[in-house]
Design a protein that fits this description.
Layout (H helix, E strand, L loop, with lengths): L7 H6 L8 H22 L10 H10 L6 H7 L8 H13 L1
Helix pairs in contact: 2-3, 2-5
Length: 98
């Protein structure tokens, strides 16, 4: 579940997501989920609601790097997810809600 403070559009437009592929976005979502679970387990609170918060995505962005460099993208003529906000929104929404 996503917390109310998560802005998927802002995540999609974040410069740290420049040159992210679909696999990179999946890694970002997975990392945010893992961070959320680690926090939940370490809190020892049984009744605490489990929700991925903005802080989990922020921390995950520091750990997740694009798998394709700018040089490769420029060479091949492709430009990935950075400005494809709608795609990013639906991708993250689907991955988080599964």
């Amino acid at each position: 579940m996503l917390a109310d403070d998560v802005d998927l559009e802002a995540i999609g437009k974040n410069e740290k997501c420049s040159y992210f592929t679909g696999a990179d976005l999946a890694a970002l979502v997975r990392e945010a989920g893992i961070l959320c679970l680690q926090e939940y387990i370490s809190s020892n609170e049984v009744n605490k609601q489990l929700a991925i918060q903005s802080k989990h995505f922020d921390e995950a962005m520091m750990k997740t790097r694009p798998s394709v460099s700018a040089e490769v993208l420029n060479y091949t003529g492709f430009y990935f997810v950075s400005h494809l906000t709608l795609y990013t929104y639906f991708f993250i929404k689907l991955k988080v809600s599964l």
